[in-house]
């Protein structure tokens, strides 16, 4: 059985708490990687933001561990205090073993002053600042003027580059194929802007409403769609998109009765007989994601999206849409469904 991967984070008095925060939050909440803060002696420390931190281990324990990712944040003393030199055996062990070492801000100066940047591509707060803070630094030929750089198994970053630093970590660990993590991180990573708020314009929609619970919804999966296509053709409507299901105040409880609108986008609203409606729906603010595969796994996609939204403090409107771009009842793994979760924009 493969051992659980881990991430050790060095914490010390005055460390810059924001620098590793994004990376370790994502690791702890959206992956199975265990985050382990450690200090020199295992005793509590106070971060630069005056946050008291209780480490889980000491440096001695960390040296004895098999570490997949070691993060060294910057801070007020990392490049100037000799107490941190006790870390050097651990850092060299990490690099020699081929495991990831990630240093940010003044921690790059600490590495540079002890020869760990001399032969590897790296970055820092600034080339001249790095030379000034690390008099023994001899790696200027390998300095790259970018927010964050990966050279072999060493990741370095400027102190202002928390997001690029995090992205290099996730990329090096092969984590960005995890949809939940990628969605959440997408809100911070402006360079990969596929995950963002969407403003859906007003939609001419031909539909029928149902009051159902989860059990009552299931028989509609095939019958309602066929009915709507037949009625649309009979009414002379021009269909302009795939079938959609709109959920009003559905809370995920199988017993909750909620309103479900099943219908088709059309080019223009028109009079239709009851129980059908054809009207232009108002514009819709949402966060969307594409679910590929069987519908019995849609709950997983919703759970991941809603979890990420709760983390970010995004308020849901209670109105969600599903657009069925492709569906195959014989090969449900070929289904492509666009999930749109309505949000209340601040």
TrEMBL record:
One of its GO terms (biological process) is regulation of DNA-templated transcription. It comes from the Bacteria. Residues 234-341 form the GyrI-like small molecule binding domain. InterPro entries: Class_I_gatase-like, DJ-1/PfpI, GyrI-like, INH-QAR, Reg_factor_effector_dom_sf. Residues 8-170 form the DJ-1/PfpI domain. Coiled coil: none annotated. This is DJ-1/PfpI family protein. It comes from Chitinophaga oryzae.
């Amino acid at each position: 059985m493969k051992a659980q991967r881990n991430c050790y984070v060095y914490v010390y008095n005055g460390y810059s708490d924001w620098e590793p925060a994004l990376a370790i939050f994502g690791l702890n909440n959206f992956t199975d990687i265990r985050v382990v803060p450690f200090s020199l002696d295992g005793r509590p420390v106070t971060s630069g933001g005056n946050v008291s931190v209780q480490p889980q281990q000491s440096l001695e324990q960390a040296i004895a561990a098999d570490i997949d990712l070691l993060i060294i944040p910057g801070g007020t003393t990392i490049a100037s205090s000799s107490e941190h030199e006790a870390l050097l055996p651990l850092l060299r062990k990490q690099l020699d073993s081929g495991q990831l070492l990630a240093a940010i801000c003044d921690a790059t100066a600490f590495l540079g002053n002890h020869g760990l940047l001399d032969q590897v591509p790296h970055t820092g707060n600034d080339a001249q600042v790095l030379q000034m803070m690390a008099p023994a630094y001899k790696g200027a030929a390998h300095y790259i003027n970018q927010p964050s750089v990966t050279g072999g198994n060493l990741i370095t970053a400027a102190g202002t580059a928390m997001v690029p630093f995090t992205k290099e970590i996730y990329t090096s660990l092969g984590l960005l194929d995890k949809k939940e993590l990628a969605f959440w991180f997408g809100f911070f990573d402006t360079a990969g802007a596929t995950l963002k708020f969407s403003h859906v314009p007003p939609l001419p929609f031909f539909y029928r409403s149902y009051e159902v619970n989860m059990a009552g919804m299931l028989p509609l999966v095939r019958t309602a769609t066929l009915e709507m296509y037949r009625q649309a053709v009979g009414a002379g409507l021009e269909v302009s998109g795939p079938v959609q299901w709109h959920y009003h105040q559905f809370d995920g409880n199988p017993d909750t009765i909620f309103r479900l609108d099943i219908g088709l986008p059309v080019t223009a609203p028109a009079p239709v007989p009851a129980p059908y409606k054809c009207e232009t729906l108002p514009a819709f603010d949402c966060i969307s994601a594409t679910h590929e595969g069987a519908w019995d796994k849609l709950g997983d996609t919703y759970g991941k999206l809603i979890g990420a939204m709760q983390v970010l403090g995004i308020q849901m409107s209670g109105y969600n849409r599903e657009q069925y771009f492709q569906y195959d009842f014989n090969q449900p793994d070929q289904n492509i469904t666009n999930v749109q979760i309505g949000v209340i924009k601040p």
